Amino acid sequence: MSSVRVELGSRSYDILIGSGLLAQPASFACVARARASALVVSNTTVAPLYADRLQASLQPHYARVLRCVLPDGEQYKDWQTLNLVFDALLAQHCDRRSVVYALGGGVVGDISGFAAACYMRGVDFVQVPTTLLAQVDSSVGGKTGINHPAGKNMIGAFHQPRLVVADSEVLRSLPRRELQAGLAEVIKHGAIADLEFFAWLEHHLDDLLALDAPAVAHAVHRCCSIKARIVSRDETESGARALLNFGHTFGHAIEAAMGWGRWLHGEAVAAGMVVAAELSVSLGLLDRQILSRLRELLLRAGLPVQVPALPVARYLDLMRVDKKAEGGTLRYVLLDALGSARLAAAPDALVTEALCAHGALAQADA
Amino acid sequence: MSSVRVELGSRSYDILIGSGLLAQPASFACVARARASALVVSNTTVAPLYADRLQASLQPHYARVLRCVLPDGEQYKDWQTLNLVFDALLAQHCDRRSVVYALGGGVVGDISGFAAACYMRGVDFVQVPTTLLAQVDSSVGGKTGINHPAGKNMIGAFHQPRLVVADSEVLRSLPRRELQAGLAEVIKHGAIADLEFFAWLEHHLDDLLALDAPAVAHAVHRCCSIKARIVSRDETESGARALLNFGHTFGHAIEAAMGWGRWLHGEAVAAGMVVAAELSVSLGLLDRQILSRLRELLLRAGLPVQVPALPVARYLDLMRVDKKAEGGTLRYVLLDALGSARLAAAPDALVTEALCAHGALAQADA
C-alpha cells in the first residue's frame, strides 16, 4: 500500500493506493464515527460487485451503514439522480455528522460529492473510485457536480473528500473500454506535467492494458502525485489547475454534441487532446513530432484520435458555453513540450483548422 | 449611510445601510467588472418595483445587466425555481466572472446565493435585501439554500456575498405583515445577544412599525453588527452561530407542518421563540418574567405567540429532521437571561409541555 497526501491546510487528506484495500476496515479508520451514519452511494453496475464488501469494512466504524443505488451512466448525472441521494439521507434522518461514501466511477463520485457538499450545507465524504479514470483523476481534488442540458459540470461545488481509497483489485471487473478511457487521463498527466512518466507509459502501456499490478499501482500513484501537487497550489482553479483540463474543452464539446454518455469522458478527452496538440503545433508552440507521439500512444491504448464528423460550427458553439470562456474569450490548454502545458487564447480560424484536421466537417461540407 | 464590516479574512465584506442606496451607482462600485455580466434575480412582486432602479445603478459597472424573475413565495424555494436561475445564466452565456444580484427577501436571497454558489462551482453574488427580515438577518452570513419536501433549508451551501446593500427606502413598499415578520428577527437579536437593544426595542417599537427612518436604520445597523460579530467567529455554525437559530427549531416545524409559505418565516420564529423561552423557564434557566417581556413585545409587534393547534407529536417528528439534530439528540437554543443564549438538550417531556403550553395539542386531544 502506498499513499499520496493532498496538502490543503485543514482540508488535507490522503489517497491510499493498493490491492485489496476495500476489504480492509483499517483503510477507513481515519473517518470512523461511532455515533453517526455512513451512506454508501453506488450505481446499479458497481453496487452488486462491491457494495457488500465496502459496507462490511465500514460496519465497525459507524452506528449505521446505509446504501443508495443510482442508475448507471453519464446521462443520469443530473438533478433527478442527485435528489435520490438527498432523499436517502433525509429518509434515514442522516445528520451533519454523517459521511457519504462514493463507490463507483466519476459520475458516482461527482454526484455523491456534490450531494455531500449541499446536504445540510456540507457533510463529509470519502471517494472509493472503482474505475481507472476515477482513481487517477476525478476522485482527487474536490471537483463535484452535475450536468445541465446546456453544458457539462455547469452546476457543482469544490468539496474535498476526507479520504480517497483506490483499490487496484476492483479494476479487474472494469470493461476494457472503460479501462482504455481511463488511460486517456493517465496519458494526459504525462503529457502536461511529466515527460519521464510519458516515456514510461510508452514502454509500459501493454502492462497497463493487461492490468499488471505493479504497473497499475505505479501509474495511479504517479497521476495522483501530479494532481495532488497541482490541486494543493490552486484548489479552485484560478491558475495552474486549469492545465489539468488539457483536451477537455474539445472533449466536453464532443460529449455534449453526441449526447452525454455516448462517448466515454476519457474517449472524448483523447480526441480532444489530439486537437489541442494540433492547435499547439499550428500556434508554433509545439513540435509536430510530439503530436505524433501523443497520437500514437492514444491509438495504442485503443482510444479515438478523431472527433466525430460534425460541423465545426457546432463544436465552436458548444465550447462557448464551456466554463473556461472568460469575458467572451475562450482559452485553451496547449502544450509547449511533452510534460509542459500553458493556457492561452487562439484565433477561431486556427481552432477551426485544428478541428477539421482531426475529423470535424468544414462549413462547406456541412 | 452607515456600514458594518463582516470580517472573514479574504471573504470579508461590507453591509451598507441607508436610504436611497439602490438608486446610487456608487453603492455597487466595489463589485464593478467592466467586462463581465451582472444578473439581477428578483421575484414577480419586487421586480416591478425596484429592478429597473437597480439595473440602472449597475449599468455603469458591467458589460451587460440581465434580469431573471422568479415566482414569489417560500413554496417556490425549491429546485425548479433554482433551476430558472441556472437556465438564465446559461442561456446568456454567463461565465465565472459574472455577478449575481439577489433583489428581494430571504427566499430570493437564499435561492440566488445558492445558485451563485453552484454555478460553475461558484460565482460572486451581492445581496440587495428588500424586506426587513432579509436586511437584519438572512442577507448576512452566507447561508444559502433551498427546501426539500422533508425539511427546510436541507440543501444549500455557505457562500458569502461580496457586498450587502440594505436600502431603508425600499421597506416603504413592504406589506405590514412582512414588516411585522421582520420585527421577529429584530427582537430575536436583542433577546439572544443584546439586553440594551432589547430595552431600546421596547421603547421604539412603534417608531419601527411607523418606519421612522432613523429608528429603522438604528435597528438594521444593530442587528447586522450582532450577526456580523457572531458570523465572523463561527462562519459554518460549529458553535456560537447556532444561537442565531433561537426560535427556529420550533419555527421550522411550524412552517413545515402548515406547508411552506402559509406562515411567514418571522411569524413562525416568533411563536417558536415563545416556546423556546418557555422551555428555558421550565429547565430553570430563565426567569418567567423575561418570557413575559418577550411575549409582550412580540404581541405589540402584531406577531403570533401561539403555535398552530396541531398534535405535539407532529412537531416532534418534524423537528427530528431539523438540521440541529446531532447523533439523534435535538439541541435547542435556550435563553439564560435577556441578551444571553446557549445551546442545550432538553427532555422530550419538557419540550412537549412547552409546546402544549403555547398552542400544540397534547396526544389526548388529538
Which helices and strands occur, and which strands form pairs?
The structure is a homodimer of 366-residue chains.
Chain A: E1 2-6, E2 13-18, E3 33-43, H1 47-58, E4 62-70, H2 79-91, E5 99-104, H3 106-118, E6 124-129, H4 132-138, E7 143-148, E8 151-158, E9 163-167, H5 176-193, H6 195-209, H7 213-233, H8 248-258, H9 265-282, H10 288-300, H11 312-320, E10 325-326, E11 329-337, E12 340-345, H12 348-357
Parallel strand pairs in A: 2-9, 3-4, 3-5, 5-6, 6-9
Antiparallel strand pairs in A: 1-2, 7-8, 10-11, 11-12
Helix pairs in contact in A: 2-3, 4-5, 4-7, 5-6, 5-7, 5-9, 6-7, 8-9, 8-11, 9-10, 9-12, 11-12
Q: Unreliable stretches of chain A, pLDDT < 50, 5 or more residues? A: none
| CATH class type of the largest domain in chain A | Mainly Alpha
The oligomeric state is: homodimer
Which geometry of chain A do the CA atoms define?
globular
Helical fraction of chain A equals 40-55%
The proportion of residues in beta strands of chain A is 15-25%
Instruction: Compute the CA-based radius of gyration of chain A.
Output: 20 Å
Order of SSEs of chain A, N→C? EEEHEHEHEHEEEHHHHHHHEEEH
- Total helices of chain A: the number is 12
The CATH homologous superfamily of the largest domain in chain A is named: Dehydroquinate synthase-like - alpha domain
Q: Biggest sheet of chain A, strands in spatial order?
A: 1-2-9-6-5-3-4
CATH-scheme architecture of the largest domain in chain A? Up-down Bundle
Distance between the termini of chain A: 53 Å
